[in-house]
Design a protein that fits this description.
mainly alpha, Hypothetical protein af1432, 9 helices
Length: 158
Amino acid sequence: MEKNIWITSAAALARRLHKGQVDKAGLDYFEGHLSTVAAMGRRWQEQVVGYLHDASEDTPHTVEETLALLEKEAQQSLGKEDREELATALQLLNHHNSPDRGSYIRAIGEHPLARAVKLHDLRHNMDLSRLSSPSPKDLTRRERYEREYDYLSSHSSR
């Protein structure tokens, strides 16, 4: 199976799903955040989840709907194992599915794909050089992200 089709399809889908959204720096969310997170991925699955990690959080689509849209975009079906791995990672990366932030990060730490993408996400979010004048709230958020990054890095089994 050609893996690049999944990356290009995920990019096209993410661009469509997040149209009109902006990141904390005021940049187009697809260009400013999702493309950066996806580009950090080493495996095709990391890149696909990098593009789609916020879809079920920030759009009206569930993880299952997002994966169905991905397959429609690619005009083919994911293999069962690949679909399950992507679905699990996307479920874990939706913080609405966890009772609190600590539970959310701990669950991500147990899943290699979700962990890898969350590390990319946190790395990008910690870069305050994107903001013209970081507020005290931004600095506090970065401190939390740094703690989470350290926790997830220490749970990496690669």
